[in-house]
């Protein structure tokens, strides 16, 4: 067992938002999100967005394409790529994450995302539900996504997530894919507008 994850190098200026979806008290989410952040170099270009810390307007104000500008819209807009860190609840991802997604539109578009899910069974149902929703927003998901089976059994004596080396290698590989898409789609956003 090892605690090390090789930091993923991404070019300066590629901003990655790590979005932690659980809002429960005593949640595991931040522990997994910290593991992901540690695998990314250039901390200045990483924005950890904790859904529990965001107050979105009432859903009665929601309209197609989002709604009134939210307090976190500028942070999503500033990102070139997303890592969704999400638990699986009843074979999907949490409702709080769906609200965050629905409250934004242009901020997500033509950007890549990867998913780090976790749960008793590994969280794969949450991953696949997210893929379908993100496709509607023209978000490209990486082929690789990470499903962590019962990660609470892999905490070190300081409470950090410390999985086997092959799990960390999987994260490194999916972040490399994410970086590739981030570069390609940043160029596409500048030079190749998506047909309406
Ligand atoms: C409402 C709820 C539903 C859950 N449903 C599933 C499930 O469908 N599949 C699964 O593997 N784990 C399920 N779990 C277990 C969670 O994956 C586990 O509690 C995990 O720690 C939750 O992440 P969090 O602590 O960051 O909120 C569920 C947990 C909750 C609270």
Instruction: Determine the structural class based on helices, strands and strand pairing.
Output: alpha/beta
Order of helices and strands: EHEHEHEHEEH
Tell me the β content.
Answer: 15-25%
By CATH, the superfamily comes out as Flavodoxin domain
CATH architecture: 3-Layer(aba) Sandwich
The strand count comes to 6
- Form type: globular
Salient structural properties:
binds flavin mononucleotide, 196 residues
Q: Topology of this protein?
A:
Blueprint: E1 16-20, H1 29-38, E2 46-50, H2 73-78, E3 81-87, H3 95-102, E4 112-119, H4 124-136, E5 140-141, E6 146-149, H5 165-191
Parallel strand pairs: 1-2, 1-3, 3-4, 4-5, 4-6
Brief summary of the model shown:
The chain has about 200 residues and is α/β, with parallel strands linked by helices.
What would your notes on this structure say?
This protein has 196 residues and is an alpha/beta fold. It has a single domain (16-191), classed as 3-Layer(aba) Sandwich (Rossmann fold). Helix content is 33%, strand content 16%. It is built from five helices and six strands. It has helices spanning 29-38, 73-78, 95-102, 124-136, 165-191, and strands at residues 16-20, 46-50, 81-87, 112-119, 140-141, 146-149. Strands 1, 2, 3, 4, 5 and 6 form a six-stranded parallel β-sheet that branches. Strand 4 (112-119), helix 4 and strand 5 (140-141) form a beta-alpha-beta unit. The mean pLDDT is 93.
């Amino acid at each position: 067992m090892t605690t090390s994850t090789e930091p993923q190098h991404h070019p300066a200026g590629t901003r990655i938002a790590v979005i932690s979806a659980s809002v429960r008290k005593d949640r595991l989410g931040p522990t997994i999100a910290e593991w992901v952040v540690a695998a990314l170099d250039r901390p200045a270009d990483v924005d950890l967005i904790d859904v529990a810390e965001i107050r979105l307007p009432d859903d009665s104000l929601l309209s197609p394409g989002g709604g009134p500008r939210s307090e976190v819209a500028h942070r999503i807009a500033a990102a070139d790529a997303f890592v969704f860190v999400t638990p699986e609840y009843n074979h999907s991802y949490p409702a709080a994450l769906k609200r965050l997604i629905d409250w934004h539109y242009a901020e997500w578009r033509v950007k890549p995302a990867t998913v780090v899910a976790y749960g008793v069974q590994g969280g794969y149902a949450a991953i696949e539900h997210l893929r379908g929703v993100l496709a509607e927003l023209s978000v490209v998901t990486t082929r690789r996504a990470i499903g962590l089976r019962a990660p609470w059994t892999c905490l070190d004596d300081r409470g950090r997530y410390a999985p086997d080396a092959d799990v960390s290698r999987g994260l490194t590989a999916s972040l490399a894919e994410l970086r590739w898409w981030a570069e390609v789609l940043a160029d596409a956003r500048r030079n190749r507008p998506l047909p309406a």
